[in-house]
Fold this protein.
Amino acid sequence: MINIPSVKLGIVAVSRDCFPIDLSQSRRADVVKACQKQGFEIVEIKATVENESDAMQALQEIRDNEVNALVVFLGNFGPEGPETMLAQQFGGPVMFIAAAEENIGVLSSRRGDALCGMLNASYNLQLRGVKAYIPEYPVCDAEQTADEIKQFIPIARALIGVSKLKIISFGPRPYDFLACNAPIAPLFKLGINVQENSELDLFAAFNEHKDDARIAEVVADMEKELGDGNNMPGILPKLAQLEITLLDWIEANKGASEYVALANKCWPAFQTQFGCVPCYVNSRLTARGIPVGCEVDIYGALSEYIGLCLTEDAVTLLDINNSVPFEMYQKSIEKQTKYDAQEVFMGFHCGNTPMCKLTKGEMKYQLIMHRGLEAGKEPDITRGTLEGDIIPGEITFYRLQGNKDSVLKSYVAHGEVLPVATESFGGIGVFAIPEMGRFYRHVLVEDGYPHHGAVAFGHVGKALFSVLKLLGVETVSFNQPKGMLYKSENPFA
């Protein structure tokens, strides 16, 4: 997968000067061995930090080794000033974790007291305004520490990616979907660059690629991917032309950023001018690591990108779309699952979900657009959707959003796609989220979220929650269990 960072971990041991320095050093070495045993590498920074000069020496060693995600390891109590100064000047994702006492024997004279030191470190991090990742219980033995560091890797990957991301959009955010028209000022505070372009810019670039020599090669790749689902081969050259146009635009406009996401206008003038629906191209780019937010959904594209970094796998963007008919619920869900009728819904979009996340993807035409643009005619300009039922399994449904007051907020919910045939069109699945009815009313409706939600395949809420908090998002809502009332929930209902 392209367009996401590679994480290079480093670990620095810190030591308060009235404690044995070799205690931190030997414990650091044990952690490095445990990491290697678990199958991942971490650079062992040899400079041990007791004072500010040591911190600068360690920082230089970190830079020399091109470390981009740092573990500050309290092998003993640790010097809270120098260790937090190191984290501040490092500037990238930082994890703080402390050493547990190994056995009774250390208590007589080689105690580390890192349980105490972590408290001082956390306060000093707050004084310096440094948001560091601290595990749920941050005092661990070597094996546990290695396990916690492993869980830090996708979090670090997402934070690095967001900090070096550019979101490129085409077209004004649609009037019909004002919910996608959110303030973008909070994105710049996250270090994200936003480049908004006209549809005319894209159209001009698209026309310049009309006879591009690479079109045949991309068409062949599309044919291979679609296989038996290649129902409309005549539209593939236009889709290939669009794909090449977008990839060339990214390379020409990436600028100072390292990673890119797109948020593109996709209807209704798109069809009449470009002569196709862009959904299949959006699906292919997302599968490669370049998410595309439909309907110029800038925050949707960002949400997708975070999920890509966490999972190193394809994601999708869907409407929280329609209720499941009670007839279908009774036939295929009620007796086979634990969910009630309000906990299931259909997640849908026209055709942007990658092929690898569909049970059987097929090239089709956009039924709703066809009604308005080509009623009674053979589909032509409305061709280009990738349709099929979404694969069953665990999912995380989530979104990061800037609200009307330019404040970041978010939600995260674990659920699953059920193995139920949708009997519908588009890229679509029957989703189940525990307590979805209450979550829908008291988070999605009450807090003014738009209809789009990002979907990561797998349960990644733990890492996602940490990423959002480290990005400074104060509100991270979730699907609360029964008995845990939402702020707006009527206790007498």
Q: What stands out?
A: The chain is about 40% helix and 20% strand. The longest helix spans residues 142-163. The CA atoms of residues 344 and 432 lie 4 Å apart. The mean pLDDT is 96.
